[in-house]
Amino acid sequence: MIARLYGAAIRGLLMALMIALPALIVPGMSIDTSQATVLVALLAAFLTFVEYNSASPSIVEFRDAAPFNRLRFIALFVTVLMLSLICKGKVDPTTTTNALTSVGTIVGNSIDFPYSPVRLVVLMLPAGSDYEVVQSVRTAAGLSYLASLTAMAAFLVLVRVLGWPSRKGAFNVWVNLPLFDPTTGGDVLQRLNRDARINIVLGFLLPFAIPAVVKLAADLINPISLENPQTLIWTMSAWAFLPASMIMRGIALQRIAEMIRDQRKRAYATAENEFQVA
Questions:
Q1: Percentage above 90 pLDDT, the chain
Q2: Which residues contact 52 (CB under 8 A, 6 or more apart)?
Q3: Which keywords label this protein (predicted)?
Q4: How many structural domains compose the chain?
Q5: What φ, ψ does residue 189 adopt, rounded to 5°?
Q6: What residue numbers bound the domain in which 116 lies?
Q7: How far apart are CA 18 and CA 80, in angstroms?
Q8: Are both 135 and 89 inside the same structural domain?
Q9: How far from each other are the two terminal CA atoms of the chain, in whole angstroms?
Q10: What letter would DSSP give residue 77?
């Protein structure tokens, strides 16, 4: 009980810290923006605390299948931190901010080729945008995309090399997949594999689809202004994190389906041996 309460409190504080990072690091934030950030951070901390302090799961998947959620949180935290430091470097440059800007510029320029996700992000900017804005978006897109690819590669190693999640013991479907009802909708394996394929396909398409949708919507509504540091940080973080998170979820669902299939094979083999002995 105490351990669960302590863990939930730590997770809530970390979530609030991540949301407040841009306001804490980037200078020149307005009072209204700071107040809104504090409100959102407190709300996120409260929801995280309630979720992880509860014995029964509600919406958070893979709650007891570490380090799935930890890896996703670290990827998003690092992305927000790096982009916040880059935005700070425009006003108060330091060695760290200059180094991150240089790395982001190199990565952004290297993957800014025709039809790449970074090129599409740059193209979604309004016509006539300043060169500094275009360069900032390219740098932020490169760094955030690099962080998301690193997280996906690390999770793939956990699954294929280290045997996640079987090395942590038995996998509880009810706790780790609270929104998945195994008793309805046909065979569990088919549903898991179908959901896994949908998540992986959407994860690959979203980095290309989001800029295209934003560009098309700009004709009907006011386009997104990425000149504001807060908007730049959260837009680029979401653009890179959401697809990576969906791909990681698809890989996880495929892994669970494999575990269920292997368990069925062992159960069928045991039952057949017992029948032959009898």
A1: 49
A2: 4, 7, 8, 11, 12, 60, 63
A3: Membrane, Transmembrane, Transmembrane helix
A4: 2
A5: -60, -45
A6: 67-277
A7: 7
A8: yes
A9: 47
A10: H
